[in-house]
Specification:
This protein is α+β, with helices and mostly antiparallel strands. The chain has one domain: Alpha-Beta Plaits (2-Layer Sandwich). It is built from six helices and six strands, in the order βαββαααβαβαβ.
Length: 145
């Protein structure tokens, strides 16, 4: 059985979007080359929330990705960029990815909300995630290997 990782972070300001996109592209490049990465997708909604869903062969492969390279380098700056951040990992059967409604439901019900944010929103403090109505920069991510 594979491991499905779901994340969401909301940017503090639209002025951070260009820098975030540049940093995110470095992480996506690392992701595509990671051993054990099977499938993924990302989107940004008009609330400036970035959503990701990635499918992994196992937890070890996922952990090797997020504890190294571009991902590891950007994580200490999370509170500089975002005022909401939540993550969830579940066992997942199949090689396709769930829709964003599924991701929203899992993040809302079993997601782990960040405790390191310096300026969390009221929604973050109340563990409330807004389901996006309009999105942009939605794309699939496939392994490069």
């Amino acid at each position: 059985m594979a491991l499905l990782s779901m994340t969401r972070l909301q940017l503090k300001s639209i002025s951070l979007l260009p820098k975030f996109i540049i940093q995110n592209e470095r992480v996506v490049k690392q992701l595509r080359m990671s051993d054990g990465f099977l499938n993924g997708k990302t989107m940004i909604d008009f609330n400036l929330a970035a959503w990701t869903t990635t499918l992994w062969q196992n937890e070890e492969a996922m952990r090797a990705f997020y504890t190294s390279g571009a991902h590891r380098n950007i994580m200490p700056t999370l509170s500089n960029y975002s005022n909401e951040a939540v993550v969830c990992h579940i066992s997942f059967d199949g090689d396709g990815l769930p829709d964003w409604h599924f991701v929203h439901e899992k993040l809302s019900t079993i997601g782990k909300f960040s405790t390191v944010l310096t300026q969390p929103t009221q929604n973050h403090l109340n563990k409330k995630i807004v389901m996006p109505k309009v999105t942009f920069l939605t794309r699939p991510i496939k392994p490069s290997k």
